[in-house]
Amino acid sequence: MKYELPLLPYADDALEPNMSAETIHYHYGKHFQTYLTNLNTLIEGTKYEEMPLEEIVRTAEGPLFNNAGQAWNHKMFFLELSPDPKREPGGRLAEAIRRDFGSFEQMKEKFTHAANTLFGSGWAFLSQDEGGHLIISQEPNGNNPMTKGLIPLMTCDVWEHAYYIDYKNRRADFAGKFWEMLDWSVVESKYK
């Protein structure tokens, strides 16, 4: 298989109580793995077999796009979480947040609103455009801001499987706890 689960930089129970080991087991170990398995099956023997995942997301359609997008989005999501995260952005990213949203708190409110109000399943993203300006978007299903020419910096998974074991139908509670797990040092490393 070309695409495999990335190793998590934390133990399955390290994000508790915000995200349980059971959620990691099912969300990371089952859902994410299924997208990767499907992706590997779909690219076999096609022009996509040797493409980087980002290029597949930008160019594919239908089931291939859905599985590639979900694989890329899940990788970003799980690798930006930490049991001991940097809680606020610094440097140039912090300056860009103040410039584009007024304050860090206003950005968090707008992002949380996007996560909570997305109808159905999908993702909330913070991305940057070519000029370095920051944009918050709602991306349904497996969509990704890369298809719009943006550079994704962080994401929150709001598919029910991301939170249902721990929060049942309380997406807003999960979206609030997301900030306690998000490691801003990872996000800062993507801002150009």
Features:
single chain, minor pseudopilin epsh fold, three-stranded antiparallel β-sheet, 192 residues, mainly alpha, 2 domains, 8 helices, Helix Hairpins
Entry summary:
The chain is built from eight helices and three strands; from the N terminus they run αααααβββααα. The protein is mainly alpha-helical and 192 residues long. The radius of gyration is 16 Å and the shape is globular.
Question: Could you please describe the fold and organization of this structure?
Answer:
The chain is mainly alpha-helical. The protein is built from eight helices and three strands. It has a three-stranded antiparallel β-sheet, sandwiched between helices. It starts with 20 loop residues before the first helix and ends with a helix. The model has no long low-confidence stretch (mean pLDDT 97).
CATH homologous superfamily identity of the largest domain: Iron/manganese superoxide dismutase, C-terminal domain
Number of strands: 3
- How large is the count of helical segments? 8
What are the low-pLDDT stretches, counting only 5+ consecutive residues below 50?
A: none
Mean pLDDT: 97
The profile of the biggest β sheet is: 3 strands, antiparallel
- Helix and strand pattern: HHHHHEEEHHH
Q: Give the strand order of the largest sheet, numbering strands 1, 2, ... along the chain.
A: 2-1-3
The CATH class name of the largest domain reads: Alpha Beta
